[in-house]
Amino acid sequence: MDKIISTAKFLKGEISIPGDKSISHRAVMIGAISDGVTEITGFLKAADPLSTISCFNSLGIEHKFENEKLFIYGKDLKGLRRSATTLDAGNSGTTIRLMSGILAGLNFSTIISGDQYLIKRPMKRIIDPLVKMGADISSTEKFTAPLSIKPVETLNAIDYELPIASAQVKSAVLFAGLYANGTTRVIEHEPSRDHTERMLNLTPEKSSGKSIISITGGMKLEAKQFVVPSDPSSAAFFIVAALIVPNSEIKIINVGMNPTRIGFIKVLKQFGANIILENERTIGGEPLADIIVKSSVLKSNCILNGNLIPNIIDEIPILSIAAANAIGKFEVRDAQDLRNKETDRIAAICFNLRKMGLDVEEYKDGFAFESKKDLLSSGFESFDDHRIAMAFGIGSLALNGQSTIINSECVSISFPSFWKIVNTLQK
Ligand code: S3P
Protein backbone atom coordinates (compact mmCIF):
# COMPACT_ATOMS: atom_id res chain seq x y z
CA MET A 1 0.00 0.00 0.00
CA ASP A 2 1.35 3.40 -0.95
CA LYS A 3 0.67 6.35 1.33
CA ILE A 4 0.04 9.80 -0.11
CA ILE A 5 1.17 12.65 2.10
CA SER A 6 0.40 16.34 1.65
CA THR A 7 2.12 19.35 3.14
CA ALA A 8 1.12 19.81 6.80
CA LYS A 9 0.06 23.31 7.87
CA PHE A 10 0.85 22.61 11.53
CA LEU A 11 1.01 19.74 14.04
CA LYS A 12 -0.72 20.12 17.39
CA GLY A 13 -1.80 17.89 20.25
CA GLU A 14 -0.81 15.48 22.96
CA ILE A 15 0.07 11.97 21.90
CA SER A 16 1.25 8.79 23.44
CA ILE A 17 3.54 6.49 21.52
CA PRO A 18 3.49 2.67 21.70
CA GLY A 19 5.85 0.67 23.92
CA ASP A 20 9.58 0.27 23.50
CA LYS A 21 10.45 -2.46 21.01
CA SER A 22 13.76 -3.49 22.59
CA ILE A 23 12.23 -3.72 26.06
CA SER A 24 9.13 -5.57 24.81
CA HIS A 25 11.26 -8.32 23.19
CA ARG A 26 13.35 -8.71 26.31
CA ALA A 27 10.34 -8.79 28.65
CA VAL A 28 8.92 -11.77 26.72
CA MET A 29 12.28 -13.56 26.58
CA ILE A 30 13.07 -13.05 30.26
CA GLY A 31 9.47 -13.96 31.17
CA ALA A 32 9.69 -17.22 29.21
CA ILE A 33 12.80 -18.39 31.09
CA SER A 34 11.67 -17.15 34.51
CA ASP A 35 9.83 -19.15 37.09
CA GLY A 36 6.17 -18.04 37.29
CA VAL A 37 3.93 -15.56 35.50
CA THR A 38 5.50 -12.37 34.15
CA GLU A 39 3.15 -9.40 33.81
CA ILE A 40 4.03 -6.84 31.14
CA THR A 41 2.35 -3.44 30.96
CA GLY A 42 2.83 -1.34 27.84
CA PHE A 43 4.01 -4.21 25.60
CA LEU A 44 4.45 -3.13 21.98
CA LYS A 45 1.86 -5.03 19.92
CA ALA A 46 3.74 -4.74 16.64
CA ALA A 47 4.99 -7.38 14.21
CA ASP A 48 8.54 -7.69 15.61
CA PRO A 49 7.75 -8.32 19.30
CA LEU A 50 4.80 -10.51 18.23
CA SER A 51 7.36 -12.64 16.35
CA THR A 52 9.19 -13.12 19.64
CA ILE A 53 5.98 -14.27 21.32
CA SER A 54 5.19 -16.68 18.51
CA CYS A 55 8.71 -18.20 18.65
CA PHE A 56 8.27 -18.84 22.37
CA ASN A 57 4.77 -20.27 21.78
CA SER A 58 6.42 -22.82 19.47
CA LEU A 59 8.76 -23.67 22.36
CA GLY A 60 5.80 -24.40 24.67
CA ILE A 61 5.36 -21.01 26.33
CA GLU A 62 1.81 -19.73 26.76
CA HIS A 63 0.73 -16.12 26.91
CA LYS A 64 -2.43 -14.07 27.18
CA PHE A 65 -3.37 -10.44 26.60
CA GLU A 66 -5.82 -9.18 29.22
CA ASN A 67 -6.77 -5.65 30.30
CA GLU A 68 -3.96 -4.01 28.31
CA LYS A 69 -1.43 -6.37 29.90
CA LEU A 70 0.54 -9.27 28.53
CA PHE A 71 1.08 -12.33 30.73
CA ILE A 72 3.88 -14.77 29.95
CA TYR A 73 3.73 -18.17 31.64
CA GLY A 74 7.40 -18.82 32.27
CA LYS A 75 8.93 -22.28 32.50
CA ASP A 76 12.28 -21.52 34.07
CA LEU A 77 15.64 -21.73 32.32
CA LYS A 78 15.25 -25.32 31.15
CA GLY A 79 11.47 -25.80 30.80
CA LEU A 80 11.15 -24.87 27.12
CA ARG A 81 10.40 -27.78 24.80
CA ARG A 82 11.41 -28.72 21.28
CA SER A 83 9.49 -27.02 18.50
CA ALA A 84 7.96 -29.20 15.83
CA THR A 85 8.59 -26.46 13.27
CA THR A 86 11.28 -23.94 12.33
CA LEU A 87 10.98 -20.84 14.52
CA ASP A 88 9.98 -17.83 12.45
CA ALA A 89 11.55 -14.57 13.65
CA GLY A 90 9.88 -12.67 10.79
CA ASN A 91 11.71 -9.42 10.11
CA SER A 92 13.18 -9.21 13.59
CA GLY A 93 16.94 -9.15 14.11
CA THR A 94 16.47 -8.79 17.85
CA THR A 95 14.35 -11.96 18.00
CA ILE A 96 16.78 -14.18 16.12
CA ARG A 97 19.98 -12.83 17.67
CA LEU A 98 18.88 -12.68 21.30
CA MET A 99 16.96 -15.95 21.19
CA SER A 100 19.98 -17.76 19.75
CA GLY A 101 21.73 -17.10 23.05
CA ILE A 102 18.93 -18.93 24.88
CA LEU A 103 18.54 -21.72 22.31
CA ALA A 104 22.28 -22.48 22.50
CA GLY A 105 21.86 -23.60 26.13
CA LEU A 106 18.81 -25.87 25.70
CA ASN A 107 18.84 -29.66 25.51
CA PHE A 108 17.09 -29.97 22.14
CA SER A 109 17.68 -28.87 18.57
CA THR A 110 16.04 -25.81 17.05
CA ILE A 111 16.07 -24.17 13.65
CA ILE A 112 15.34 -20.45 13.58
CA SER A 113 14.90 -18.31 10.48
CA GLY A 114 12.99 -15.30 9.22
CA ASP A 115 11.68 -13.36 6.25
CA GLN A 116 13.42 -12.53 2.96
CA TYR A 117 15.22 -9.56 4.60
CA LEU A 118 16.24 -11.22 7.86
CA ILE A 119 17.86 -14.16 6.08
CA LYS A 120 20.30 -11.74 4.43
CA ARG A 121 21.46 -10.13 7.68
CA PRO A 122 24.80 -11.08 9.30
CA MET A 123 24.68 -13.69 12.08
CA LYS A 124 28.45 -14.33 12.41
CA ARG A 125 28.50 -11.66 15.11
CA ILE A 126 26.47 -13.93 17.43
CA ILE A 127 27.66 -17.29 16.08
CA ASP A 128 31.31 -16.49 16.93
CA PRO A 129 30.90 -15.82 20.66
CA LEU A 130 28.32 -18.57 21.11
CA VAL A 131 30.62 -21.12 19.43
CA LYS A 132 33.44 -19.90 21.71
CA MET A 133 31.17 -20.85 24.62
CA GLY A 134 30.87 -24.34 23.13
CA ALA A 135 27.54 -23.94 21.31
CA ASP A 136 26.78 -26.03 18.23
CA ILE A 137 25.38 -23.60 15.65
CA SER A 138 25.39 -23.92 11.91
CA SER A 139 24.26 -21.38 9.36
CA THR A 140 24.49 -20.88 5.62
CA GLU A 141 27.96 -20.51 4.11
CA LYS A 142 27.50 -16.75 4.31
CA PHE A 143 26.81 -16.95 8.07
CA THR A 144 23.17 -16.05 7.61
CA ALA A 145 19.92 -17.69 8.79
CA PRO A 146 18.48 -20.30 8.94
CA LEU A 147 20.45 -21.10 12.08
CA SER A 148 20.45 -24.67 13.27
CA ILE A 149 21.22 -24.86 16.97
CA LYS A 150 21.94 -28.27 18.50
CA PRO A 151 22.24 -29.26 22.15
CA VAL A 152 25.69 -29.55 23.73
CA GLU A 153 26.86 -31.17 26.97
CA THR A 154 27.82 -27.84 28.54
CA LEU A 155 28.25 -24.20 27.61
CA ASN A 156 31.32 -22.60 29.13
CA ALA A 157 31.54 -19.10 30.51
CA ILE A 158 33.85 -16.82 28.54
CA ASP A 159 35.23 -13.30 28.72
CA TYR A 160 34.01 -11.65 25.54
CA GLU A 161 35.28 -8.34 24.30
CA LEU A 162 32.64 -7.04 21.87
CA PRO A 163 34.28 -6.47 18.46
CA ILE A 164 31.34 -4.25 17.40
CA ALA A 165 29.09 -2.02 19.47
CA SER A 166 25.93 -4.10 19.43
CA ALA A 167 23.30 -4.55 22.13
CA GLN A 168 22.03 -7.59 20.27
CA VAL A 169 25.40 -9.35 20.43
CA LYS A 170 25.93 -8.32 24.04
CA SER A 171 22.47 -9.62 24.98
CA ALA A 172 22.88 -12.93 23.09
CA VAL A 173 26.08 -13.63 25.05
CA LEU A 174 24.47 -12.63 28.36
CA PHE A 175 21.49 -14.92 27.72
CA ALA A 176 23.83 -17.80 26.84
CA GLY A 177 25.75 -16.95 30.02
CA LEU A 178 22.66 -17.94 32.01
CA TYR A 179 23.16 -21.49 30.71
CA ALA A 180 26.96 -21.62 31.03
CA ASN A 181 29.23 -23.08 33.70
CA GLY A 182 30.76 -20.17 35.59
CA THR A 183 30.65 -16.41 35.15
CA THR A 184 30.49 -14.94 31.65
CA ARG A 185 31.86 -11.44 31.24
CA VAL A 186 31.04 -9.15 28.33
CA ILE A 187 33.41 -6.25 27.84
CA GLU A 188 31.99 -3.26 26.02
CA HIS A 189 34.08 -0.31 24.80
CA GLU A 190 31.35 1.74 23.17
CA PRO A 191 28.11 1.90 25.18
CA SER A 192 25.09 0.31 23.49
CA ARG A 193 21.53 0.07 24.86
CA ASP A 194 21.55 -1.55 28.30
CA HIS A 195 18.01 -2.87 28.71
CA THR A 196 19.09 -6.50 29.13
CA GLU A 197 21.40 -5.53 32.00
CA ARG A 198 18.71 -3.44 33.68
CA MET A 199 16.02 -6.09 33.28
CA LEU A 200 18.26 -8.88 34.62
CA ASN A 201 19.54 -6.62 37.43
CA LEU A 202 23.16 -6.84 36.29
CA THR A 203 25.39 -3.99 37.41
CA PRO A 204 28.19 -3.20 34.98
CA GLU A 205 31.64 -2.47 36.35
CA LYS A 206 33.09 0.64 34.75
CA SER A 207 36.83 0.68 34.29
CA SER A 208 39.05 2.88 32.10
CA GLY A 209 36.41 3.71 29.54
CA LYS A 210 34.98 0.21 29.28
CA SER A 211 32.06 -1.49 30.85
CA ILE A 212 32.22 -5.11 32.09
CA ILE A 213 28.94 -6.97 32.53
CA SER A 214 29.05 -10.27 34.41
CA ILE A 215 26.41 -12.98 34.55
CA THR A 216 26.50 -16.22 36.49
CA GLY A 217 25.27 -19.43 34.91
CA GLY A 218 22.25 -21.11 36.48
CA MET A 219 21.07 -17.85 38.10
CA LYS A 220 17.40 -18.41 38.90
CA LEU A 221 15.01 -15.85 37.42
CA GLU A 222 11.82 -15.19 39.35
CA ALA A 223 8.88 -13.87 37.32
CA LYS A 224 8.22 -10.19 37.84
CA GLN A 225 6.31 -7.23 36.49
CA PHE A 226 7.74 -5.14 33.67
CA VAL A 227 6.49 -1.68 32.73
CA VAL A 228 7.47 -0.78 29.17
CA PRO A 229 7.93 2.96 28.51
CA SER A 230 7.06 4.49 25.13
CA ASP A 231 9.76 3.89 22.57
CA PRO A 232 12.09 6.92 22.23
CA SER A 233 13.06 5.71 18.74
CA SER A 234 9.40 5.93 17.70
CA ALA A 235 8.91 9.25 19.52
CA ALA A 236 11.87 10.60 17.52
CA PHE A 237 9.74 10.68 14.35
CA PHE A 238 7.16 12.99 15.91
CA ILE A 239 9.77 15.11 17.67
CA VAL A 240 11.36 15.87 14.31
CA ALA A 241 7.93 16.32 12.71
CA ALA A 242 7.02 19.06 15.18
CA LEU A 243 10.42 20.72 14.69
CA ILE A 244 10.23 20.95 10.90
CA VAL A 245 6.51 21.65 10.31
CA PRO A 246 5.90 25.37 10.97
CA ASN A 247 3.50 26.52 13.74
CA SER A 248 3.66 23.19 15.56
CA GLU A 249 3.60 22.34 19.22
CA ILE A 250 3.15 18.80 20.49
CA LYS A 251 3.49 16.93 23.76
CA ILE A 252 4.51 13.27 23.88
CA ILE A 253 3.92 11.55 27.20
CA ASN A 254 5.75 8.75 29.07
CA VAL A 255 8.72 8.42 26.71
CA GLY A 256 11.68 6.22 27.70
CA MET A 257 14.73 8.36 28.50
CA ASN A 258 17.35 5.65 28.93
CA PRO A 259 20.67 7.46 28.44
CA THR A 260 21.84 4.80 25.93
CA ARG A 261 18.89 5.74 23.69
CA ILE A 262 18.49 9.51 23.70
CA GLY A 263 21.61 10.69 21.91
CA PHE A 264 19.28 11.96 19.18
CA ILE A 265 17.73 14.50 21.60
CA LYS A 266 21.20 15.87 22.35
CA VAL A 267 21.94 16.11 18.64
CA LEU A 268 18.66 17.91 17.95
CA LYS A 269 19.29 20.32 20.84
CA GLN A 270 22.69 21.07 19.30
CA PHE A 271 20.78 21.86 16.11
CA GLY A 272 18.86 24.46 18.17
CA ALA A 273 15.69 22.41 18.66
CA ASN A 274 13.11 23.65 21.13
CA ILE A 275 12.61 20.43 23.13
CA ILE A 276 11.61 20.53 26.79
CA LEU A 277 11.58 17.48 29.08
CA GLU A 278 9.00 17.52 31.87
CA ASN A 279 7.92 15.23 34.64
CA GLU A 280 11.16 13.23 34.62
CA ARG A 281 10.85 10.05 36.70
CA THR A 282 11.96 6.41 36.87
CA ILE A 283 9.54 3.50 36.53
CA GLY A 284 10.61 -0.15 36.66
CA GLY A 285 14.29 0.72 36.38
CA GLU A 286 13.89 2.86 33.25
CA PRO A 287 13.84 6.69 33.25
CA LEU A 288 10.91 8.41 31.51
CA ALA A 289 9.74 11.93 30.75
CA ASP A 290 7.08 13.89 28.90
CA ILE A 291 8.43 15.84 25.93
CA ILE A 292 7.23 19.18 24.60
CA VAL A 293 8.43 20.13 21.13
CA LYS A 294 7.90 23.36 19.19
CA SER A 295 8.81 24.24 15.60
CA SER A 296 12.39 25.50 15.50
CA VAL A 297 14.96 26.99 13.17
CA LEU A 298 17.57 24.23 12.95
CA LYS A 299 21.30 24.51 12.21
CA SER A 300 22.81 21.18 11.31
CA ASN A 301 26.55 21.87 10.87
CA CYS A 302 28.05 18.77 12.46
CA ILE A 303 29.67 15.37 12.02
CA LEU A 304 28.04 12.52 13.89
CA ASN A 305 30.59 9.75 14.46
CA GLY A 306 32.50 7.58 16.95
CA ASN A 307 30.97 6.52 20.25
CA LEU A 308 27.77 8.46 19.58
CA ILE A 309 26.76 6.17 16.68
CA PRO A 310 25.52 3.14 18.71
CA ASN A 311 23.38 5.54 20.77
CA ILE A 312 21.65 7.02 17.70
CA ILE A 313 21.84 4.05 15.32
CA ASP A 314 18.06 3.72 14.85
CA GLU A 315 17.50 7.49 14.67
CA ILE A 316 19.94 8.29 11.84
CA PRO A 317 17.17 8.13 9.18
CA ILE A 318 15.00 10.69 11.02
CA LEU A 319 18.02 12.84 12.01
CA SER A 320 18.78 13.08 8.29
CA ILE A 321 15.29 14.48 7.76
CA ALA A 322 15.89 17.07 10.50
CA ALA A 323 19.20 17.96 8.81
CA ALA A 324 17.58 18.24 5.38
CA ASN A 325 15.27 20.86 6.90
CA ALA A 326 18.08 22.70 8.68
CA ILE A 327 20.77 25.09 7.57
CA GLY A 328 24.27 23.69 7.15
CA LYS A 329 26.32 20.60 6.30
CA PHE A 330 25.46 17.31 7.92
CA GLU A 331 27.76 14.31 7.96
CA VAL A 332 27.46 10.83 9.44
CA ARG A 333 30.56 8.57 9.71
CA ASP A 334 31.50 5.31 11.51
CA ALA A 335 27.97 4.03 10.87
CA GLN A 336 28.79 1.12 8.53
CA ASP A 337 26.50 -1.17 10.55
CA LEU A 338 23.56 0.81 9.17
CA ARG A 339 24.12 -1.21 6.00
CA ASN A 340 23.15 -4.37 7.96
CA LYS A 341 19.76 -3.21 9.21
CA GLU A 342 16.31 -4.14 7.85
CA THR A 343 17.62 -2.68 4.60
CA ASP A 344 20.94 -1.01 3.73
CA ARG A 345 19.94 2.22 5.46
CA ILE A 346 22.89 4.26 4.16
CA ALA A 347 21.88 3.47 0.58
CA ALA A 348 18.18 3.98 1.35
CA ILE A 349 18.70 7.38 3.02
CA CYS A 350 20.96 8.61 0.19
CA PHE A 351 18.53 7.38 -2.48
CA ASN A 352 15.54 9.19 -0.97
CA LEU A 353 17.42 12.38 -0.04
CA ARG A 354 18.56 12.63 -3.65
CA LYS A 355 14.90 12.39 -4.68
CA MET A 356 14.35 15.47 -2.50
CA GLY A 357 16.90 17.25 -4.68
CA LEU A 358 19.89 17.11 -2.32
CA ASP A 359 23.43 16.40 -3.48
CA VAL A 360 24.39 13.56 -1.18
CA GLU A 361 27.85 12.06 -0.92
CA GLU A 362 27.75 8.41 0.06
CA TYR A 363 30.61 6.74 1.98
CA LYS A 364 31.11 3.15 3.06
CA ASP A 365 30.39 4.19 6.65
CA GLY A 366 28.00 7.12 6.21
CA PHE A 367 27.00 10.06 4.06
CA ALA A 368 27.10 13.86 3.90
CA PHE A 369 25.04 16.64 2.38
CA GLU A 370 24.53 20.37 2.50
CA SER A 371 20.91 21.33 3.10
CA LYS A 372 19.03 23.37 0.49
CA LYS A 373 15.89 25.44 0.29
CA ASP A 374 12.91 24.24 -1.74
CA LEU A 375 13.24 20.50 -1.33
CA LEU A 376 11.20 18.45 -3.80
CA SER A 377 8.20 16.29 -3.07
CA SER A 378 8.50 12.86 -4.62
CA GLY A 379 7.72 9.15 -4.48
CA PHE A 380 9.93 7.77 -1.72
CA GLU A 381 10.91 4.12 -1.45
CA SER A 382 10.43 2.47 1.94
CA PHE A 383 12.58 -0.51 0.88
CA ASP A 384 10.12 -2.36 3.17
CA ASP A 385 12.01 -0.87 6.13
CA HIS A 386 9.78 0.62 8.83
CA ARG A 387 12.19 3.36 9.88
CA ILE A 388 12.87 4.48 6.29
CA ALA A 389 9.09 4.64 5.62
CA MET A 390 8.48 6.67 8.79
CA ALA A 391 11.43 9.02 8.33
CA PHE A 392 10.47 9.96 4.76
CA GLY A 393 6.77 10.06 5.74
CA ILE A 394 7.67 12.76 8.27
CA GLY A 395 9.97 14.48 5.77
CA SER A 396 7.05 14.63 3.32
CA LEU A 397 4.97 16.68 5.77
CA ALA A 398 7.39 19.60 5.32
CA LEU A 399 7.66 19.40 1.50
CA ASN A 400 5.67 21.49 -0.93
CA GLY A 401 3.18 19.28 -2.75
CA GLN A 402 2.19 15.67 -2.48
CA SER A 403 4.62 12.85 -1.80
CA THR A 404 4.15 9.11 -1.73
CA ILE A 405 5.70 6.49 0.51
CA ILE A 406 5.86 3.22 -1.37
CA ASN A 407 4.91 0.11 0.63
CA SER A 408 4.10 2.21 3.65
CA GLU A 409 2.51 -0.70 5.54
CA CYS A 410 5.95 -1.83 6.74
CA VAL A 411 5.57 0.61 9.68
CA SER A 412 3.66 -2.25 11.34
CA ILE A 413 7.04 -3.79 12.25
CA SER A 414 7.46 -1.33 15.11
CA PHE A 415 4.64 1.26 15.01
CA PRO A 416 1.29 0.09 13.58
CA SER A 417 -0.55 3.31 14.58
CA PHE A 418 2.06 5.59 12.96
CA TRP A 419 -0.03 6.90 10.03
CA LYS A 420 -3.06 7.39 12.30
CA ILE A 421 -1.02 9.62 14.63
CA VAL A 422 0.31 11.58 11.63
CA ASN A 423 -3.34 12.36 10.74
CA THR A 424 -4.46 13.12 14.31
CA LEU A 425 -1.81 15.79 14.80
CA GLN A 426 -2.99 17.72 11.75
CA LYS A 427 -6.56 18.15 13.05
C1 S3P B 1 18.51 -3.50 19.28
C2 S3P B 1 19.81 -3.17 19.05
C3 S3P B 1 20.27 -2.42 17.87
C4 S3P B 1 19.11 -1.71 17.18
C5 S3P B 1 17.90 -2.59 17.02
C6 S3P B 1 17.42 -3.08 18.37
C7 S3P B 1 18.18 -4.27 20.49
O1 S3P B 1 20.85 -3.33 16.97
O2 S3P B 1 19.51 -1.23 15.93
O3 S3P B 1 16.85 -1.88 16.41
O4 S3P B 1 17.00 -4.33 20.87
O5 S3P B 1 19.12 -4.81 21.10
P1 S3P B 1 22.43 -3.71 17.04
O6 S3P B 1 22.66 -4.41 18.33
O7 S3P B 1 22.64 -4.61 15.87
O8 S3P B 1 23.13 -2.40 16.91
Topology:
Blueprint (H helix, E strand, L loop, with lengths): L2 E3 L6 E5 L4 H12 L2 E7 L5 H12 L3 E5 L2 E7 L11 E2 L4 H11 L6 E4 L10 H9 L3 E3 L8 E4 L4 E2 L2 E3 L5 H11 L2 E2 L1 E6 L6 H5 L5 E3 L2 E7 L8 E3 L4 H13 L4 E8 L6 H8 L3 E10 L2 E9 L7 E3 L3 H5 L3 H9 L4 E4 L12 H11 L4 E4 L2 E5 L8 E3 L4 H12 L5 E4 L11 H7 L3
Parallel strand pairs: 2-17, 3-16, 6-7, 10-12, 11-13, 20-21, 24-25
Antiparallel strand pairs: 1-25, 3-5, 4-5, 7-9, 8-9, 13-15, 14-15, 17-19, 18-19, 21-23, 22-23
Helix pairs in contact: 1-2, 1-3, 2-3, 3-5, 4-5, 7-10, 7-12, 10-12
The structure holds shikimate-3-phosphate.
Question: Can you offer a commentary on this structure?
Answer:
By secondary structure, this protein is of the alpha/beta class. It has 13 helices and 25 strands. Helix 3 packs parallel to helix 5 (167-177), helix 4 (124-132) packs parallel to helix 5 (167-177) and helix 7 runs parallel beside helix 10. The longest helix has 13 residues, at 232-244. It starts with a strand and ends with a helix. The model has no long low-confidence stretch (mean pLDDT 98). Bound molecules: shikimate-3-phosphate.
Entry keywords:
single chain; 427 residues; alpha/beta; UDP-n-acetylglucosamine1-carboxyvinyl-transferase, Chain; 29% helix; 27% strand; globular; binds shikimate-3-phosphate
Short description:
The protein is α/β, with parallel strands linked by helices and 427 residues long. Helices cover 29% and strands 27% of the residues. It has two domains: 3-19 and 229-425, UDP-n-acetylglucosamine1-carboxyvinyl-transferase, Chain (Alpha-beta prism); 21-227, Enolpyruvate transferase domain (UDP-n-acetylglucosamine1-carboxyvinyl-transferase, Chain), CATH 3.65.10.10.
